[in-house]
Amino acid sequence: MNKTSDSVRFLRSALQSEGSCITNAQVLSWIEQRNREVQIQIEPVKLSQMRDWHFDEDVGRIRHVSGKFFSIDGIKVRTDYGNLHEWRQPIINQPEIGFLGCVVKEINGILHFLVQAKIEPGNVNCVQLSPTLQATKSNYTQVHKGKRPTYLEYFNGEKPHRILIDQLQSEQGARFLHKRNRNIIVEIEEGITPHPDFVWLTLGQIKFLLFHDNIINMDLRTVISGISFGELDRTAIDILEGLTACKPYTAGMLSSALDTERTLHSFEEIISWFTSQKVKYTLEVEPIDLREISDWIITDEGLHHKDKLYFDVRYVNVLISNREVSQWQQPLVAPKEEGILAFIVKKINGIYHFLIQAKLECGNLDVLEFAPTIQCITGSYRNSRKILPYLDYVLSVRNDQIRFDTLQSEEGGRFYHEQNRNLIIEADDDFPVECPENFCWMTLHQLLKFVRFNNHLNIQARSLLSAISLFDQK
Prior knowledge:
By secondary structure, the protein is α+β, with helices and mostly antiparallel strands.
């Protein structure tokens, strides 16, 4: 089956807001049921009380006794990007590449995704829907000496499958040092009876559930963000829009996902712009002892900034009864406040374009990545309205301009109760097309094309893209 055919199959699944196996209302009830049935206990613990974690005096980092999983390291950063040119901070160092993977199967002619009701220790609301497989290398190689992840056999070559998507994608560049995961979607033909923690959903159902706060976890969002829907000419798009009978905004997003003719910039022009931005700025990251970070305080309870800014590092004792290992201890990064992520979209040449910024973060593997128009993850964005381009506009828009507005959690395996307000805002006709040099307008089709390549769209941009629905929400 060729790539165009796969794109059409993904599109058909994205347009199905109800599935063959379970209704959306039943999914929400099932999540509540799993919350009641699974035993969960998250308690603070001191580093001196942790069995398998310790402060390594020789190198000044917090690490696991196995040398696997991850560590909390110190770094010194120098750059000529932005207003702050040098700083020191703790960062998560997790050099191994894990799996974020979905099994898909045609059910009644429509692709369905096998998703898991998964509890992570840092989740705001305990159970969230995750990919079929969400596992670090340390987990799936069973360093923890626990059970192996369910359905691993479809991703490691033990059972037959067909790969539809296979990408290396970055994670939060301000918190992780050069972290990437393998985002993969595999198709199977054999029939399987889902494990009690798993259900089959269409892509449209997943997108429907994204309009609820903190239901679809970060890892499932990044996997589905890599799905593109091919390309069509204007006549075919007009026919498709007529068949789906969408409202103007939704129909416009469908056009933006498929149209290649009405772009403000060509693909080659965007690549040249991004390359020029990358060579303009430098990023130097040097590993240092955590004790050399003068603005951060290390105690037996964790790490925190002396002015109580940015984030803390805490230690927790975890009990989750349905995990491969039911009890363990680990550090978690806890933000000091919620952040905001926003895309501004505007019709240019009759088609929706997204306002993208080329953003530097200290943990980026290649200096810059495409980011949302606004990305304020740490610090107080309310005090930055005059500093960050477009932030004042985003915080002042009318309600009728807001096309998407939910709270979405960051990855609960490393972050404690971190959630960000995710927004998609449609600009008025008089909103300027001209933008600062590190910003660029792109169609949805162009963004989905760039997602196929490593280290282009950051995880915040991918999270927002995953929420774009191609059918009208009720």
